[in-house]
Design brief:
The protein is about 40% helix and about 15% strand. It contains 15 helices and eleven strands. It has helices at about 5-10, 25-35, 50-60, 80-85, 105-110, 125-130, 155-165, 180-185, 195-200, 210-215, 240-250, 255-260, 265-270, 295-315, 315-320; strands at about 15, 40, 65-70, 95-100, 115-120, 135-140, 145-150, 170-175, 190-195, 225, 235. It has an eight-stranded parallel β-sheet with strand order 1-9-8-6-5-4-3-2. Helix 3 (about 50-60) links the parallel strand 2 (about 40) and strand 3. The relative contact order is 0.14. The structure holds flavin mononucleotide (FMN).
């Protein structure tokens, strides 16, 4: 195996598709794994039944390893999701736990034979994740699409500070959308990368074409952060609906007042149903690099090829920094 992340997950390239609320379907996870990366079926935005169906689709579409994502504080009750994951555990290699305290779940899923990946966004939480028994720690920077840590640390600062403290492998997430980002993450000390937005813009992802079209058209300045007024940080595509939320936040609403705007169903209507004027869509800052809608398997292979090219060109540093 090529490095510790590849060995742990049994994959060719240390490229992981992050859990994607509403749009992390089975066909996408399988395509990522077929390309040599590690796909994940999301639980967020799905019923336990639909989640199991997506795992079934993924398992039928690939003989390569794949996993699932459980954002711990996303569901009002995790029990049916935990049961669903345990039901399909034999099809899975790993679980990523995000957005909440994973402590009670780690022994449960370890016992089920799954590798544990915990998502964090600071040295303190990364160390805690390692202590809890994470097999690898995913560190997500503020560039990332979706819910981020209110610490708002960027990947460039986060990864070197985390990777020098941890013994388990660190995977970098946030703003990565080409081989340059992959190689940069490794230069900073990561042993793998996790991408979200780029995998939304693929043929297999069940996101609506209207959403994918916006991702292709988007430039570097296309994202904005909402929910800061209630202590949360969610990076989304700029859109009239998202701007409306931001304007409303200026009036300092309570959580209850803001809730009707930020509810997941408003993500669903835009991301899945394509009614982009009526909802918001998660998006990371690397979106300006997305130009085409390709198969997710080809995207993984392209990232690997670009990483080889970029790293070969970095030989020049030996001269630039020669004694
Ligand atoms: C559409 C979308 C939905 C997401 N949903 C989840 C989720 O349900 N659980 C999770 O842990 N992370 C979620 N994320 C974060 C991704 O797993 C990943 O870490 C992040 O997208 C990486 O940043 P990037 O979008 O810049 O590539 C989501 C991201 C996007 C873009």
């Amino acid at each position: 195996m090529r490095n510790r992340v590849c060995e742990l997950l049994g994959i060719q390239y240390p490229i992981i598709q992050g859990g994607l609320a509403y749009v992390g379907n089975g066909a996408l996870a399988a395509a990522v794994s077929n390309g040599g990366g590690f796909g994940q079926v999301g639980t967020a935005g799905r019923s336990p039944e639909n989640f199991k169906e997506q795992v079934r689709i993924a398992a039928e579409s690939t003989d390569k390893p794949f996993g699932v994502n459980l954002p711990v504080s996303e569901h009002s009750d995790n029990t049916p999701y935990i049961e669903a994951i345990l039901e399909v555990k034999d099809k899975l290699t790993a679980i990523s736990l995000s957005a909440g305290n994973p402590k009670p779940l780690v022994p449960l899923f370890k016992q089920a034979g799954l590798k544990i990946m915990i998502m964090t966004a600071s040295v303190k939480h990364a160390l805690k994740a390692q202590e809890l028994g994470a097999d690898l720690v995913i560190c997500e920077g503020f560039e990332a699409g979706g819910h981020n840590s209110p610490l708002e640390m960027t990947l460039f600062s986060l990864i070197p500070q985390v990777s020098r403290e941890l013994q388990v492998p660190v995977v970098a997430a946030g703003g990565i959308a080409n081989g340059q980002g992959v190689v940069a993450a490794f230069a900073l000390g990561a042993e793998g990368v996790q991408l979200g937005t780029l995998f939304v813009a693929t043929k297999e992802c069940e996101a609506h074409d209207n959403y994918k079209k916006l991702l292709i058209e988007a430039k570097d300045d296309a994202t904005m952060v909402m929910e800061r007024s209630i202590g949360r940080v969610t990076r989304v595509l700029k859109s009239p609906f998202a701007q409306k939320i931001l304007e409303f936040e200026k009036t300092r609403p309570t959580v209850e007042e803001l809730l009707p705007y930020i509810l997941g169903r408003n993500n669903r209507v835009a991301a899945i149903e394509g009614r982009i004027e009526e909802g918001w869509m998660n998006c990371g800052q690397g979106v300006g690099l997305i130009d085409t809608i390709d198969s997710a398997a080809d995207v993984v292979r392209r990232l690997a090829r670009e990483a080889r090219e970029v790293s070969a060109n970095l030989d020049i540093l030996q001269n630039v920094f020669a004694e």
